[in-house]
């Protein structure tokens, strides 16, 4: 533009006054109205700009905000790990996509009002909404790259701001808000919007399809078996699953409905076996490596899943192990390094008894083994995660593995567990031994064909059964106090 954007008039939608609510449904409805007003305003101005209506103003809309004020030191059930604040004060959170997070927001708001006996306040925040996120949420339009329009997008609209798009809250280094209020939620609205966009890019499915229980794997074999299981589940209404979603947002409701192969698969394709209220199971094939594991969990965490588990292949490190044996991680050796800056290696990753028991019981059910016989095919122990696929070629890692008493090695599990700990998402790992490099059984073409054919189906079924067991637990049991820090946000 010829005109300096600093001197353009700023045009914004009319902001209604803040309102107090004692009903969670009404509070969420107001959040939805305010969000629709902001996104609708930006989308309208953006569409006109695309049609050639050269802007003569700077257009700005704001995220809605949820606020809570607790005047006295709270007296709540000490067993609670979420749904309350730890000290008197004013707490706030910017909110995005209240349509997507409606059930979650209703649940969390109701807990706050019940535990503290105070209303919540809903209004407009002072955090601008980037036009990229408003457009992505409301239409199929895409924000063009610089140079396509005859004006600079940044001169007319707000764009994503790294100052509000970080992990300072979950990392425990965020100070109070500019107005002095403390954080009510683990993520800001911009951080959530950023991850929702990234999820669609990496998995080729919309955030709406993700379920509350997430399985991660590192091999396509598990994807094939998950689709087969999903089709069987759709054929049996008693199991409670109602649809299956594949990359490209392809959704089927019948067991024999076709799914088209995409011309170009995403980097980390996701598949969703859906159930009412998001209580189904999502499987994400993250591929190989801790970087992918971090990327996937960084973004899925904003959806606040109830649990995530790694079910993939690993190298068995003990001579007594056989191909196809299972490893239930009860500790992690973090040699992956991708989270060192966010979660130092001296931070222990505790095993979560609810997850461990669910996995062990699932193994017993699927294999029909128990007691001492179960030990024959499953070993608990330390799982090492490393960032070097050719670790076998170096002596030092092998010595470190021996010192740690590790029983298995992969490139993803500790990363997923560490991000589960960091983001307060219950986590677990059940791996299947696919090779034993230290004992002459390398993963070479043709060597593992029988293993893949016989073990993948049962391994995936164990993961699914474990998730079903976790789904049957009360939320306050799954989201335990083990993952909560000294001064925790109220939202789980």
UniProtKB/TrEMBL annotation:
InterPro entries: AMN_phosphorylase (IPR047039), AMP_N_sf (IPR037109), AMP_nucleosidase (IPR011271), AMP_nucleoside_Pase_N (IPR018953), Nucleoside_phosphorylase_d (IPR000845), Nucleoside_phosphorylase_sf (IPR035994). It comes from the Bacteria. Residues 26-176 form the AMP nucleoside phosphorylase N-terminal domain. Keywords: Glycosidase, Hydrolase. The keyword Hydrolase applies. Signal peptide: none annotated. Residues 271-439 form the Nucleoside phosphorylase domain. GO terms for biological process: AMP salvage; nucleoside metabolic process. CDD domains: AMN (cd17762). GO terms for molecular function: AMP nucleosidase activity. Pfam families: AMNp_N (PF10423), PNP_UDP_1 (PF01048). Its EC number is 3.2.2.4. GO terms for cellular component: cytosol. It catalyses: AMP + H2O = D-ribose 5-phosphate + adenine. Belongs to the AMP nucleosidase family. Catalyzes the hydrolysis of the N-glycosidic bond of AMP to form adenine and ribose 5-phosphate. Involved in regulation of AMP concentrations. PANTHER family: AMP NUCLEOSIDASE, URIDINE PHOSPHORYLASE. This is AMP nucleosidase. It comes from Paracoccus haematequi.
